[in-house]
Amino acid sequence: MFFVALYYQKVAMRKIQMVDLQTQYEFIKPQVDAGMQEVLSSAQFINGPAVKTFQANLEKYLGVKHVIPCANGTDALQISMMGLGLTPGDEVITADFTFAATVEVIALLGLTPVMVDVLPDTFNIDPAAIEKAITPKTKAIVPVHLFGQAAAMDEIMEIAEKHNLFVIEDNAQGIGATFTSKNGTHTKTGGIGHVASTSFFPSKNLGCYGDGGAIFTNDDDLAHTLRGIVNHGMYKRYHHDVVGVNSRLDSLQAVVLNEKLRLLDFYNERRKWAAIRYTQLLEHHPKIQTPVTSGDCSSHVFHQYTLRILDADRDALVAYLQANQIPCGVYYPIPLHRQKAYVDSRYNEADFCVTNQLINEVISLPMHSELDEAQVLFICKTLLAFFD
After folding, report:
1. C-alpha span between 51 and 185 (Å, rounded)
2. CA–CA distance, 387 with 148 (Å, rounded to integer)
3. Residues 227, 47: contact at Cβ < 8 Å?
4. What are the distances in angstroms from CA 33 to CA 52, 211, 248, 297?
5. Of 243, 245, 295, 331, which is most buried, counting CB atoms within 10 Å of its CB?
6. Helix-helix angle 101-108:73-83, to 10 degrees
7. Total tally of structural domains belonging to the chain
């Protein structure tokens, strides 16, 4: 209780921010500064001891055999696909309602992105839509644990096994979430599919102070391949055994991540607390649909707290909140199948009913581990006043 009270005292009466990285840094400043000074003094900036320590700590936290750190989350996705040996023309199914990086890497590798609709309650990829989209060219599925909520991994893994497909988890928003399968087992997201990727972008639940990412797998052979790819295809200096890239996590970022990993469960519990308070204050309004969670809420770590605004002007609400010094976000205003870079004549608008509705309804409120009661009350009071 002393730990929480001390933490809470440091964040009281702060300006409302979408993500409050300054306050978070103040709390861990001594440890981060000391660790960075150690790296600077040792000059071991690439693959130094801090990176190796972080890798081992993250493997233990996630319960996976192999973590391969890399430069950013987009690289992590691309390298995952490279490691699986996917070739140009192979089809990869993923959600239409997500950030563009998920399909960006598919296209960059000459693969064929196939976007499908999402579920209206969790916003995650719809297993029925996956099944419908499978063709003889389909080789992989990329479920995104959107906004921090675990996707329907039981159904997705069953589909993948039935059709002999790879599953690549996009865990950029879901690190720390726990998926409970129908047989009662509990697994951290990122440890369910054949391989997974994550981002350590500063605003993530586990974020560094720059760019960073990682790949997870329990497959020994795949892990060996991935370790070569991230380092120019080298296992021995100047011996290039596979086609690789230059994508490594630097030691300074590993210092930050090591310290934040120690606090990740605490950070996620603080996010859940804020989400629960938001829901308690907003769920009874007829024009607001609050996020759906299951069980003890362990499957959702609330990278975003995203509402659906029903039968009201969402964009006017955005402007109203901003005018009242409350930041908010619309993730995402344009579905991927309508983005200029990914337009494809194969797509039928009738297949994207949920996504096409969500883009006009969703709004994300400030969400981070430094939110306090006064801030949440003010945000909710102001939001509800919009409808008066």
Report:
1. 30
2. 28
3. no
4. 19, 18, 22, 34
5. 331
6. 40
7. 2
Q: What are phi and psi of 269, to 5 degrees?
A: -65, -35
pLDDT of residue 261: 98
Inside any domain, residue 5: no
Residue type, 236: K
Q: Coil, strand or helix: which one is 331? A: coil
242, 257, 272: which is the final residue of a domain?
A: 257
Rounded to the nearest integer, the mean pLDDT of the chain is: 95
- Percent of the chain surpassing pLDDT 90: 94
Rounded CA gap, 135 and 133, in Å? Answer: 6
Name residue 195's beta-bridge partners.
168
Say which residues have a Cβ less than 8 Å from residue 36's Cβ, sequence separation at least 6.
252, 255, 256
Question: Can you give the pTM of this predicted structure?
Answer: 0.94
For residue 130, what is the enclosing H or E element?
helix 127-133
d(CA 355, CA 97): 6
From the centroid of its chain, how far is CA 279?
A: 21
Q: Which DSSP symbol is given to 238?
A: T
> pLDDT of 334-380, one tens digit each?
999 999 999 999 999 999 999 999 999 999 999 999 999 999 999 99
Average pLDDT over every residue of 191-206: 98
Q: Which tokens in the block code for residue 345?
A: 């004549």
Q: Is 31 exposed, middle or buried (0-12, 13-18, 19+ CB in 10 A)?
A: middle
User: The CATH number of the domain where 231 resides is what?
Assistant: 3.40.640.10
Q: What is the pLDDT of residues 63-121, one digit of tens each?
A: 999 999 999 999 999 999 999 999 999 999 999 999 999 999 999 999 999 999 999 99
